[in-house]
Each structure stands twice: as C-alpha cells, then as structure tokens.
C-alpha cells in the first residue's frame, strides 16, 4: 500500500494531470501535488453574508438572529462557523477528497481552515470530528484527522485527537432528532485533553443537522471542557 502510494505520488509529480474542478491541464503554476489549478482555487469564495444565524452561521436574508432550524434545537456546542456553503465547487472538492480518495486535497482544505482560524481567532485546542469507523476502515484514513494533522504540521495549531466513534450512529437521511438519538453514546473519549484546556474548536467538514458535532461537544462537556465551538468547512443550506 505504502509503495503504491509512493509510486502514484511520484507519477503525479511528473505528470500532474488535470485540475479536479475545471479539467485544465495542471502545469507548475500551483504547488506540487495540488490537484486543483490556481485559477480554481482563487475562484472559491467563502460566505460573505451580512446576516448569519448566531448559532450555526447559516446565511440569512434578513436580520433574524437565529435561523428557524436552530430555534427548535438545543446543541451542546456554543456555536458553529462554516467557511463555505456546501454546494458547487466546494461540494465537488469534498466529494473528491472523501469518496474518490484524493487525500492530497487535505492540505488544500486545511488552508481554508487555517485562514478562518487566523481571521476569527478562536483560540483553543483543535479537535477533529472522528469519522464513522466503517467509512474510515474502507477508506484507510479519516478525513478530518488528515486535515487536523496538516493544521498542526504546516500551520502550528494545537491539535488533539481526543474523540473516537463507536460503530453505527448517524445516517444521512435521518432528521436531527433521529440522528441525535442514534448517535447517543456513539462518540467516546479517546484521549483526555491537556490539563487546563479551556476551549475546544471541533473541526468538521459539513455542518448538516449539527447532531454529530453536538454529540462530540456533549462528550467534551461531560469531562469538564468549559467551552466547545465548531469550525466547519461548509454548511448545508436547506
Ligand atoms: Zn481548475
Ligand atoms: Zn442556525
């Protein structure tokens, strides 16, 4: 497996192939191993909404404060901030990353997290939301753990792999309430936080119902972490 990865990495450096988003032949205009051209990277625009939900950061048309979704829900985290809306190019990038095994998109996606962390300055220990064990086993790697690893190595952020998932749990088609009851007890503490950890920033790919991150936050709160926030790459706009 490692040899195969090494060979494919060497081949991709020699023949960078084409951009995952626009299909244009990749030259040396972007960094090595980056499977997206510089033009497409520049065209990805974070959400710049004037009004956002105070809790989940969903872009709102008017200044309502809290979106209808969050008014009906109680989360164990303080708030979520999503960088993008989950559609078009960002949706395609996440699909390629998670389901087409493009692990080299990790550093590309980590850059967006790093920029958001620097801009918003939520200090705290970064904790990746663990993937479902069955998907992690099938894929051979855990998407958010890869991104968190890049944030620690390339950007110097404090990262702790505190959480793990038990098999089963949330299904995509379920409602928030169904997901929540399905997820109860499915997240466990893998490693205690360093002594004195006052704040955790959970890292997730897509904020959909908030059930998974809420379960993660619940586990951290139950061991005495005073404050848990969520930073996600994209928000699923209903
Ligand atoms: Zn492109
Ligand atoms: Zn909301």
Give the tags.
8 strands; alpha/beta; single chain; 38% helix; binds zinc ion; 238 residues; two-stranded antiparallel ribbon; 9 helices; four-stranded parallel sheet; 16% strand
Topology:
Elements (H helix, E strand, L loop, with lengths): L1 H13 L23 H5 L8 E2 L6 E2 L7 H4 L8 E6 L2 H12 L5 H16 L4 E4 L4 H7 L3 H13 L7 E3 L10 H8 L3 E3 L9 E9 L3 H12 L4 E9 L3
The structure holds zinc ion (2 copies).
Count all strands and give the number: 8
* N-to-C span: 40 Å
- Supply Rg: 18 Å
Structural class comes to alpha/beta
Question: Kindly state the mean pLDDT as a whole number?
Answer: 89
Bound molecules: zinc ion
How does this structure look, described?
The chain is of the alpha/beta class. Helices cover 38% and strands 16% of the residues. It is built from nine helices and eight strands. The strands form three sheets. It has a four-stranded parallel beta sheet. The protein is globular and about 50 Å long. The mean pLDDT is 89. Bound molecules: zinc ion (ZN) (2 copies). The site of one zinc ion has 8 residues, from helix 2.
Short description:
The chain has 238 residues and is an alpha/beta fold.
